[in-house]
Amino acid sequence: MVKRGSRPTLKNSLSRYLPAIAILAIAVWYGRSRSGPDLVPLLHEIFPGASRFEQSEGIYAAYSIENSLVGWAATGSGSGFGGPMVVLVGLDTTGNVVGGRVVEQRETPIFFRMVRAPAFFAETAGTHFTEINYNYGEIVGVTGATMSSEAIISGVRDAVTSVAGPGFNVHIPLPEKPFEFGILELVILLLFVTAVATRRFRGRSADLIRWSSQVTGLVVIGFWKNSPITVAKITALMSGYFPDIRSNLALYLLTGGFLFTVLIIGRSIYCTHVCPFGSVQQLINLIGGKRIKFPRWASRLMTGARDVIVFSVIVTALAMAQPALASYEPFAALFALRGTVLQWFLLFIVMVASLFIQRPWCNFFCPVRSCEKVVKDMRQRFTGFVEIESIECD
Amino acid sequence: MKRIKTKNIFIAAFILITDSLIIAILVETFLASG
């Protein structure tokens, strides 16, 4: 349902968004200006026998108390979930790995704890740098934390490559990164294209298309890949962190599809046809069969609280340069069976509420809805069209 | 005096519990990140 609204002026558009944009920009600037961690204590942990370190072009040379060279260390980075993962790796003078540490990470705490980084460095110690098993990522990677594990492996390779050139005169070619286009990417693309192409369908055929899309999204994007859009991913993009498109195409397809459909056709196809968490609520509501209509005061209070929470957590996460701090969705509890007690409790409440309320999470708590509201409002300022507020799928 | 509907009490409780949980999760994540 579309109605024509009055076209807002440029002046009131600016006064509405300028303060928020300024706060976000300050938060990004502050987050970026925070100094990185002090490497010296970590270098002492890797080279316990070293008394001093000399840094030249990013390579740290470690010297013993007798002033003899003990080894070299360098940092390397890989693409993590919330930002670059920086690791420090040390090699002795013969080229064997002495040890390594994760220096900087922006991962979701519950997932980072599952990555066996110390065990990986311990098991790699003593291995010559030319014989490091970089496929170790498959062993380190536990369900749901593959990206963090792969980021550590990439960081180690990057660090070793930095030392191998000046230290041992060995050039290690970086492997070609293939463009990952698998079932997940294909499904996302098909779901968006189908929904856009059939958006004018009504009645049974529209219901059939929507339900098939939702079930497919639930299975593939939810339970199989656990990769719905989250506030942490949105915050990471806002912070200027754009992970390699070759291995993160799904993220760009989802966020691009979301933005494109809201801007061009005025409604979020992601929310109605693609989001796996929305589909779960829809299915539960089908079982419950009830549709409690919320009074206006309650709807306004809840969406207002949601918008304040979303804006506050994004600003905090940007200022701390930790996008994962913004994460509050219970998606991992449902789709990866990983969550804290509080996340499980929140999931339980949302699932029970879904029996009586149409998509309670989507309508009152989801950060993607706050983003949709802003994008729609901006669109309205240019086109003069507004859409209905709540998600009503049938 | 106007009678408060049971439905409204449930709605208020739902708002209070879910928003408190979300804030608690955010605090928990913040503390866990060290």
Which assembly state applies to the chains in this document? heterodimer
Inertia-based shape of chain A: elongated
What is the overall number of helices of chain A? 17
Radius of gyration of chain A: 24 Å
Greatest interface? A-B, 30 and 20 residues
Low-confidence stretches of chain B: none
Structural class of chain B: mainly alpha
Helix content percent band of chain B = over 70%
**Span between termini of chain A:** 13 Å
Total strands of chain A = 7
Order of strands across the biggest sheet of chain A?
2-3-4-5-6
Strand content range of chain B: under 5%
Order of helices and strands of chain B: H
Q: Roughly what fraction of the amino acids of chain A lie in strands?
A: 5-15%
Task: Report on the biggest sheet of chain B.
Answer: none
Average predicted confidence as pLDDT of chain A: 87
Q: Report the span from N to C terminus of chain B.
A: 51 Å
In total, how many beta strands of chain B?
0
**What is the general shape of chain B?**
rod-shaped
SSE topology sketch:
The complex is a heterodimer of chains A (394) and B (34).
Chain A: E1 2-4, H1 10-33, H2 40-46, E2 50-56, E3 59-64, E4 69-79, E5 84-92, E6 97-104, H3 109-112, H4 117-124, H5 137-140, H6 146-168, H7 183-197, H8 204-224, H9 231-238, H10 249-264, H11 269-274, H12 276-288, H13 296-319, H14 331-335, H15 341-356, H16 360-364, H17 367-383, E7 385-387
Helix pairs in contact in A: 1-13, 7-8, 7-10, 8-12, 9-13, 10-17, 12-15
Chain B: H1 6-32
